[in-house]
Design a protein that fits this description.
- The chain has about 300 residues and is α/β, with parallel strands linked by helices.
- It folds into 2 domains: about 5-230, Alpha-Beta Complex (Spore Coat Polysaccharide Biosynthesis Protein SpsA, Chain A); about 240-300.
- It contains 12 helices and 11 strands.
- Strands 1, 2, 3, 4, 5, 6, 8, 10 and 11 form a 9-stranded mixed sheet that branches. The protein has a two-stranded antiparallel ribbon with strand order 7-9.
- Strand 1 (about 5-15), helix 1 (about 20-40) and strand 2 form a beta-alpha-beta unit.
- Helix 1 (about 20-40) packs across helix 4 (about 105-115) and helix 10 runs antiparallel to helix 11.
- The longest helix is centred in the C-terminal third of the chain and has 24 residues, at about 265-285.
- About 45% of the residues are buried.
Length: about 300
Amino acid sequence: MRAEERRLDIIIPTRNNRDHIIACLEALARAVDRARRIHGLTVHTWLVDNASDDGTPQLVRQTTRWVRVLTLERNAGFAHAVNTAAQHTRGDLWLLNPDTRPTPESLSLLLRRLYTAPDIGAVGPALLQADGRPAADGARGEPTLLREWADKVGLTRRYPGMWGYHLGRDLRERDVPVLSGAALLIRRQAWDQVHGLDERFWLYGEDTDVCVRLRAAGWRCTYVPDARVHHLRGGSARPEERLTLGLVALVSMYRYFAKHKGPSYARAYGWTMKGLALIKWAYWRARGRPEHVRVQQAILRARLTHYPNL
């Protein structure tokens, strides 16, 4: 895309994000203004609402004139919301979670890297936690059964260099296997080549899947830690939904393994997760922690081949 034709479409899927979305959009406006001045691009921002019942889309329409709001009749998931908005767009795509706060220079830095290397298909920033430190999983290695086991028992965060899974705290700009979907910028040509996100991933896993497909198609995925985006984590979920979303994450990883490594590998993952849940269930039961016992019981009862009722 020539400089005089540069376009960017920002897509923000929402689901009951009334408490966070305005702060996200205010921070985004500052980042967009800076990027426009530096790169001379045309920017459109799309909010795609997954059937919120807290007035999220109405609030955005009332307070923010520059955001184009699309509303869906049902909560069909992150990937479906993004793909729905992408059908209306022509530019490069920045997928942004509603519980993020881009820093003013974040977007311009991401675009600068994308524009300087035509073989880069996607770029991602460092995601900052509440304490200001970069999140470990802003950049990641490809999932494997061993890495998932290590992650669930806490080893990948305690010894990230040993496992090569959580790469986000290594603040060097470099190519990585997987970038977080919380603030993922994808080149339009690359997006079209891989046909967007796979909607079989209702939530979680779609970022890993699209990065793997981009790299298989010959594109690079580049971590740009000088670009920084605050990420609240969990701002898209109500407290009563968090157990269900934990099960959703397990199902999404099961689907990822079934797609990329085959059904036998996925079944091995499922049995590994069930085995860990049984051990944790016994541990928490012995310590008298019923809230943790319930979480492990839910995993033991779940069918990891299907998403729970949402």
